Amino acid sequence: MKEGKLDFEDLRNIILNNKTIKRKEVKIRNDVGEDCSIIDFGEYEGIFSTDPITGASENVGKLAVHINCNDIASAGGEPIGILVTILAPTSSTLQEINEIMKEINEEAAKINVEIIGGHTEVTSAVNKMVISVTVIGKNLKGKSVKTAGAQLGDDIIVTKTLGLEGTYILINDHKARIEKILSKEEIEFGSNLINKLSVLREGKIGGEFGVNSMHDITEGGLLGGLFEVAMASNKGFKIFKEKIPMLDITKKVCEEFKIDPLRLISSGSMLITTKNGGGLIKLLNESGIEASIIGKICESGALLIDDDIEIEVEAPKRDELFNI
């Protein structure tokens, strides 16, 4: 099999074929594109999500914290604690494991999240460090936002710019090649993109505003995120290429590696659908968060408009990082 997440249909079939028990406390269940599961605990809802870091080699501890806590933000909730699993290859050193845990601790402290448990082992089953984090969050009962909530006619909004995480990973994991196409200033700027990967602020604002759907843009990039929202909501989408915000260095890096930036992992950007896109963007801008309306949720289909030409797009099979 090829590296990367399973494609949507394969994953959905596995989920549907292995969902025997349904408890009444579970209000939102696992499904393709649904970032979190929601459990009713009375006055509050518990929000749960888990994800590994497999596509990066640098700053994996920092990435692991933010990528997982972003899932809680996409539900409009507050992350409370994380459980960390580290699988280290036999070539690892104790110092390397200590450095990763130090990094995880520092990042968790910045967003007031406690490390509440986990597991660490050295194993020949992996050939590089694998970090998997499970995050637990909370929200007031009835206030959590679903990926599957997108409605016909919703504005489609993305925050910040696309490809932040992918650009950071490529710059840091392919330094020799990157030095041939980017200036020192561009490389320094790109290396600092890791500090823009949290979407906790836009998640809080979106939740309080009352949006219909939120989804952090991870593997598969913007198109992957849109397909997940559309599939979960039983809707389609139409987006306009000229309205998609993207850094020049992201375009340069993607051109160098011959990959599609719209299918590149994009943590740091939140995908939001709402009836009042202009009102939400005003609130986000007032909080110093850039945001753009890039299209609309429609009845069906998946269209990218490029210079007035309608292009039917297919769901990404895997993230572009794995095509290099």
UniProtKB/TrEMBL annotation:
Domain PurM-like N-terminal: 33-138
Any Gene Ontology biological process: protein maturation
Pfam short name (any one): AIRS
Top-level taxonomic group: Bacteria
SUPFAM superfamilies: PurM C-terminal domain-like (SSF56042), PurM N-terminal domain-like (SSF55326)
Domain PurM-like C-terminal: 153-301
Family annotation (Gene3D superfamilies): PurM-like C-terminal domain, PurM-like, N-terminal domain
Family affiliation: Belongs to the HypE family.
Protein name, UniProt field: Hydrogenase
